[in-house]
Amino acid sequence: MAKDTFNYDNLSGEIIKLVGGQDNILKLRHCYTRLRFTLKDEAKTQKESLEALEGVLGVFTNPEEYMVVIGNNVPKVYEVIMNKLNIDKEKPVDENLDDTKKGNVFSRILSIIMASMQSIVNLICAGGIIKGLMTLLTMSNLLPADSGVFVLMNAMGDAIFYFLPIALGYNFAKNLKGNQFLGMLIGAILCYPTINDVDLNFLGHVINVKYTGTFLPVVFIVALAVPIEKWLNSHLPQVLKSFLTPTIVLLITIPLGFLLIGPFANLIGTGINTIMTGLIDFNPVIAGFIIGATWQVLVLFGLHGVPSTFIFMNLAVGNTDQFLAMNIFISFAATGVASAMYLRTKDANLKSVALPAVISGFFGITEPIIYGVTLPRMKMFIVSCVAAALGCATTGLLNVTAYSFSGIGFFAILGMLNPENPNIIPVLAIIAVHFTTGFVLAFLTFRDKKEGLIK
Q: What is the pTM of this model?
């Protein structure tokens, strides 16, 4: 294997300088392909110079974040930048910096929730892959449902969903600058077996709720617990607060959370699911067409994490999710377009960018294709959106839905298999429509023209 000789130290130093310097950085996180900065003053950035850097695929913003697109090497660049800023990654980044940036409350809360989900997405993916493998093995009569191996694998696949409140409680408390272990404990209490899905009498009122596998209840309860914890820590004597603070926090928040906040949060989650599924149920073909046509635009501005968060909420409580099935294979439309461009172009530079982008696309990472291949040639980006729209409409036509999140790219196939009646043919047909449509449309329309570039 060739050694990676790219100088990430120089790139990281230039990025820090061009986003306005260390003093302008309030917060930094990363997703699959982007560095996501929260900045004091966006006017201090130098966008054109950033985009000109070797190793940077593009720069985009949304109301909360300034995003520098790196591609598959983003973890390496993030690590170097964090070391240069001398920030402890175990703490929220803005705890180490002077955070004076204010945004609207909703977008800030949503940003924290998305950041809390980010670090466990790969664990959810691992659980989905295991569940998908179990479906394939059972379908092939290689794994009897009454075997010990089946039971053990089922535990491996289900655990992250069942105990999701624990992981979310930890992450959400950390991102709110609270005691993450107290957040984890709140999640564990919500998962305690004897209080879930049973009738409990409280002063003559019977409450029956289920919090295992839920998303919003622990978020709401931790959001209440952290301010109370901070107030107690600032008012209790040092000798008492280490054990009295968590005791008082639990005695206040758990009864309120279990009896009032949790049921209300579950009601919100049910409402969101009803709205999302209702739109698809109204006409799944039209819904798929609209989702496919607009999804890459959401990716472009980093807004695809918002609906994705609600998708995970839906799957966590045991629902199937057709919204996920409609967007999960869009990467194959973009990959088809990039593959055709690679074959048609005589531009050596485009070929060198397109080939690794195609490889990433097959594994579900589309940002290198969008920023490095299609978006600079706007017509090809539109072609990619058209191919995705037709592919997602096919998803609605064939009524394919997601049973778990098993990853992106080819790995997503496993999550689309019904454990009770697995049928892989419609899933492969959807992938074929995405890829073939993108490839054919791009092959017929792409030309090497410099004037089509937007940067």
A: 0.66
Name the nearest CA neighbour of 366 among 433, 300, 314, 440: 300
Distance CA 269, CA 218 (A): 12
Residue 206: partners with Cβ closer than 8 Å, 6 or more residues away:
199, 200
What is the phi/psi pair of residue 26, to 5°?
-95, -35
Could you tell me what percent of the chain has a pLDDT over 70? 89
Structure confidence at residue 108 (pLDDT): 64
Q: Collapse the DSSP code of 13 into the 3-class scheme (helix H, G, I; strand E, B; otherwise coil) and give the result.
A: helix
- Indicate if the pLDDT at residue 29 is higher than 80: yes
Neighbours of 248 (CB within 10 A): 16
Cβ atoms within 10 Å, residue 144: 11
CA distance linking residue 334 with residue 441, whole number of Å: 11
Strands ordered across the beta sheet of 34-39: 25-30, 34-39, 66-69, 58-61
- CA nearest neighbour of 219 among 149, 157, 269: 269
Burial track 277-309 (b if 16+ CB lie within 10 A, e otherwise): beebeeebbebbbbbbbbbbebbbebebbeebb
The two three-digit tokens of residue 50, written as one number: 């950033």
Evaluate whether 33 touches 75 at the Cβ level (below 8 Å).
no
- Cα–Cα distances (Å) from 333 to 324, 329, 421, in that order, read 16, 8, 27
Are 430 and 400 within 8 A, CB to CB?
A: yes
Q: What is the pLDDT of residues 404-450, one digit of tens each?
A: 888 788 888 988 988 888 888 999 999 999 999 999 999 999 988 65
The answer to whether residues 316 and 325 touch, using CB atoms and an 8 Å cutoff, is no
CA–CA separation, 454 vs 212, rounded Å? Answer: 49
Structure tokens at 19: 């986003």
428: phi then psi, degrees, rounded to nearest 5: -65, -35
DSSP calls for 61-123: E-SS-EEEE--TTHHHHHHHHHHHHT--TTS-GGGSS-------HHHHHHHHHHHHHHTTHHH
Q: What is the DSSP string of 163-194?
A: THHHHHHHHHHHHTTS-HHHHHHHHHHHT-GG
